[in-house]
Amino acid sequence: MKALVYHGPGSKAWEDVPDAQVQEPTDVVVKVDTTTICGTDLHILQGDVAAVTDGRILGHEAVGTVTEVGDAVRGFSVGDRVLVPAITKCGRCEYCQRGIPSHCQTVGGIGWIFGHLIDGTQAEYVRVPYADTSLYAVPESVTNEQAIFLADSLPTGYEVGVLAGGVRPGDTVAVVGAGAVGLSAVLTTGLWGASKVIAIDSNKFRLERAIEFGATDAIEVGPGTVSDVVGLTDGLGVDVAIEAVGYPETLLTAASLVRPGGTIANVGVHGTPVELPMQDLWIANVKLTMGLVDTVSIPTLLKMVASGRIPAEKMGTHSFTFDQIDEAYDVFGNAAANLALKVVITP
Ligand SMILES: [Zn+2]
Ligand SMILES: [Zn+2]
């Protein structure tokens, strides 16, 4: 089979590799019908993720068809159309039982293993461990081009942004950063009855998409960003500020937007320390949440996509085939300039 193989910082190749096969009785093999690229894949290619070594097949998101089933698998059969999520869970360790499979101890202490600790989904076939507890059957009314975004970006915006932020009916919500994950938060914040969803970005294309995805207001980053956003509230700031970038300055922006008693939900992947104005935040009873996605909201999101409440397909702006995967990386790597959100990659 062919797959996208990592060969150290800045180097990858679509090349022949040994076929994926069942290794444990709890495994299945899935033929990848649709995959995509995540910002994390770009970090890996920059050499930021030391655990990913030369020879690893990249990718942690897929929709596909089961082609081989281990002896112990009960819930899936050959031919089933399945969603392969970013997080693998054994279902039995303490963290899985607490509903935090992002720290599944059985699969290596971190639920994100595809394209990280084991071979990933940017391939013609992928081996999926703990299939019964990790895979999701895709309802007939949900297309591959919708389901693919439920593997990582939509659950991340929803769980780490909207749910962790505790959005309630009537809340005002600011989303700092309207890339794929920020827009996923915008798409799902309305489900909790936010009265205002204010998207903040420096890119006009993303702000237009944010309005299309359900934001009530779009603010282009500038010297007056904070007062512009606070001016859209009752003067005290937003109830929930979702940070979806991962830079010190964007987290500080989120911190300066939140009202007393509000929540900062950090979704962004940070690479450096951040100095927070704790002298102001403590006395304002501000909560700060953060974390790696668990993908436990996938069944909910699948239902909402199936019923038409979440137009997940809107996340996909560009389509490529496997043999164009380098081009797909180039487009996604400069997403804002290319007017791209997420790419859809198929055989
Ligand atoms: Zn990802
Ligand atoms: Zn586990």
Share in helix: 25-40%
Q: What's the total helix number?
A: 12
Number of strands: 15
- Anisotropy-based shape: globular
Please write the string of helix (H) and strand (E) elements: EEEHEEHEHEHHEHEHEHEHEHEHEHE
Bound molecule kinds, no repeats: zinc ion
> What is the CA–CA distance across the termini?
12 Å
The class by helix and strand makeup works out as alpha/beta
**Could you tell me the mean pLDDT?**
97
The percentage of residues in β strands lies in 15-25%
Q: Which parts are unreliable, with pLDDT below 50 for 5 consecutive residues or more?
A: none
What this model shows, in words?
There is one protein chain. This protein is α/β, with parallel strands linked by helices and 347 residues long. The chain is 25% helix and 23% strand. It is built from twelve helices and 15 strands. The protein has helices at residues 39-45, 94-97, 131-134, 144-147, 153-163, 180-189, 204-212, 225-231, 248-257, 278-281, 298-306, 325-333; strands at 2-6, 12-16, 28-35, 62-69, 81-84, 125-128, 136-137, 172-176, 196-201, 217-220, 238-243, 258-266, 287-290, 316-321, 342-346. The chain has a six-stranded parallel beta sheet with strand order 10-9-8-11-12-13, with helices on both faces. It has a five-stranded antiparallel beta sheet with strand order 6-3-4-5-7. Strands 1-2 form a two-stranded antiparallel ribbon. Helix 9 (248-257) links the parallel strand 11 and strand 12. Helix 5 crosses helix 6. The longest helix has 11 residues, at 153-163. It is globular, with a radius of gyration of 20 Å. Residues 89-90, 92-93, 95-96, 101, 104-106 line the site of one zinc ion.
